[in-house]
Amino acid sequence: MGEGLRPFSFYQPGLLFLLAAACYLLLQRHRKPVRPILRETLWSVRLPMLTIVLLVSYTQLVRGELALLVGQGIGLLPEIAQKVALPVAGICGAFITGSATMSNLLFMNIAQESTVWALPVALALLHTGSALGNMIALQNIVMVKSALKAENSEREVIRYSLLTLGAYLLLVLLSAWVLV
Description:
The protein is mostly helical.
């Protein structure tokens, strides 16, 4: 903690789209009233935006302590459980942060300190777990649901995704044990 506020970086993926939209509105010859369109758009994405802001804020709060706690906890596990722990840590990290990259950055030290897997295998398992975790990341589910207008609840999507995730996780772990 104690990091304080960071300076704003103008290198933001969404900033380019906002600038393009602003330029388009300025150059448009047949101007439609922008206010009703903007209001309707913001109203339709209000819940996904709020969810993402809250989850990103939560991620920033637990970032440092979470990696330390998980690393200490994995060290206390029996060897067989430690072998499963790296991809599971990646899955949990992606679920919490909504990003495989953030999950990898969050738990990279755990993979580097692994005593049960060689470093390349440990990193591969962590990265694979992070990629699998994107299936159940709440931010991703909320964004897809807002774009597709799906009738399924988040709970149903996560339940189905967990079955798929479990099958892939089992396949990854079996592959690691057989090939290494």
